Every structure is written in C-alpha cells, then in structure tokens.
Amino acid sequence: MKDFQGVAPPVATPFRGEELAEDWLAENLMRYSATGLSGIVVLGSNGEAVHLSKEEKLRVVEIARQSVGQGMWLMVGAGEATTRATVDLARQAAKLGADAVLVAPPFYYKESMKPQVLEEHYKKVAEQSPIPVFLYNVPQFTGMNMEPSLVAALAEHPNICGIKDSSGNISQLTEILRCSPQGFRVFVGSALVFLAALSVGAHGGILAAANVLPEAFVELRERFLRGELEEARRLQWSLMAISRAVTGGYGIGGLKAAMDLAGYKGGEPRLPLKRPGEEGMAHLRELLSPWL
Question: What is the pLDDT of residues 116-127, one digit of tens each?
C-alpha cells in the first residue's frame, strides 16, 4: 500500500464549455507532478464528480493514472447513492490503477442514514473494494457529519485506512486522531486550518487551494516538519484569503478562475455553476498577485 500522507489537491475537472477537456486535465496533472505534491485526488467535490457521467468518471481516472508522477498516490472519489454502485465504481477505479478510493456517505435519504446504517454501508464497501477505502466527511455538501465514534469504529476495519475530514472542526479532527488506531491516516480538507491540523497530528491535507498554489502548501508542511513554526505560521496566514475565496467565497467557478490566473487550465464549471463576474475576477487577481 502507498504511504498516504502529505499534500494533495482534489483536482478540478476542466471543461471546454460543457465538454471534458482531456488534454487540459492531463497537462495540469503532469505539472502538479513536478511541484512536490504527495498525491492526487480525482472525482472529489472540487472535481465536480456529481456533474460527470459514469463514462466521464472512468475516463478521468484513466487520464489521471497515465499523467500522475510515479512516486505519487492516486485517490479516486467513489461515493455513490447505493452500496452496490459505490462498490462497482471502486472496483473499476482499481482496475484503472487507483491506489485508494475516497467514499462520501450516501446522503440523499439522510434521515435514514443512522450511524449503524452508515457503518454497515462502509464495511460492505471495504470488504468488496480491491483497494483501500478512505472515509470522506464533508457535511457542507452532504448535510451529514460523521461523528468521531463512527469513524473510530470503521477505522478498525483492515481495509478502511483513513479519512478526509472537511468539516473544519479541529476539535473533531483531534478526537478522530485520538480514537483511531495507529496507521489510520487522517487528512484535513480545509486549507484554513491546515497548520492547526498538522499540529494535532494530521498526516496531511487534501486542499482545494492546492490546485492553485501547490508549492505553497507543500512548503507550509515542510516548514512544520522541520520545526520552523513561526515561518509555517506566517505562511498559513498569508494563504488564508485565497483559500477562503476559492472554497466558500466563489465556489468551484472561483477555483477554476484562480487556476487559470495561476497558469493552470481551470476551464469552465458545468452549468448551473458559473465563474465569477468582473468584480470577482479582479478580487482573485488581487489576492493572487503576491504569489505570481
């Protein structure tokens, strides 16, 4: 199994108009491979997985496996509305060379998704997936929060190897780390609390803003590991505004616009999502100007 740690972007899926821009995706991934990133995540929330057909999803995984650097791990979002569909996507991702799958909880019938139901779902997926399973807690999109007690119970399964927690709740992240067995990998999904998460023991970050400024987040982690805490703290502070803008501020369209400004190929989001207007673009340019 790959050593899952470090910094990875949940890669945006570029479109020309409404069509998948395969060449732009490959170009971005090859460029990311030279930045010091440890891994790549495709088909996540920032990858607009919910906007892709099954055929497009598999094509994204295929392109990613061909384009990602040899020493980097490749994680694929595989959370579907049913256990059966999740297992199917996990198996197909494995056949295409994915190293792990990232599985968000089924959330459409959220009132029925009690902890016992979710535990059974994840265990069935883990038992049938040929590659390691990572839990994905993203309550801002699912409307559900995976409590540390549930995470700890699932962490005992030999094929459930970690979690991406995008809640932004450091207290919860700390409790997950405290309750989880040794070797269970905990990634933070919010760039706004990246340094804080590292400080309580997180193994890395899967961060939207790393699509735009990958080297900066790699440097932040390296400074933390070297004990250069004041420098790491200043770097975290300097990344706050752009991180906020490309997540909650301007959403997927803003993330893609910022990628374009930084020299990557963001492209368009799929409708009904849109890129920022002129005022938003001017704001993003201002925020990125110190980095470019």
Answer: 999 999 999 999
